[in-house]
Design brief:
The chain contains three helices and two strands. Strand 1 and strand 2 form a beta hairpin.
Length: 134
Amino acid sequence: MNRRMLTKEDEAAGDEVEVRREDQDKINKFSRLHQRELNLEEELKVKNKEKEELEDISTELELADEDETVPYKIGDAFFHLPLPQAQELLASSTSRVEEEVSALEDKLGTIKDEMTQLKVELYARFGRSINLET
């Protein structure tokens, strides 16, 4: 992203465009969508990290002895479970996290599409006198 100050000519050439109520509503909507996008991206990072950790744990459990009990965290407590049961619970947790990641990615895609549409409309109306680069 290249930012620069406007020259005196660019500043003088900028036609003053009246900001209508509907324009302000679109700008506000863009701002809200941008904030929601940032929140979803942060949440997506957390879920992807959780998914990666679950996959690492699954790999570690494959190396464990079948007769061992393994500590499995449920809420704030650890329970010693037989290995097959722990692997089953881990698989269900992994699939749940994958579904959550997929849902977040879908929401993020929808928000980005909506933001792109708003950018097109606002840049068409205001040209260079508005900056919507995020």
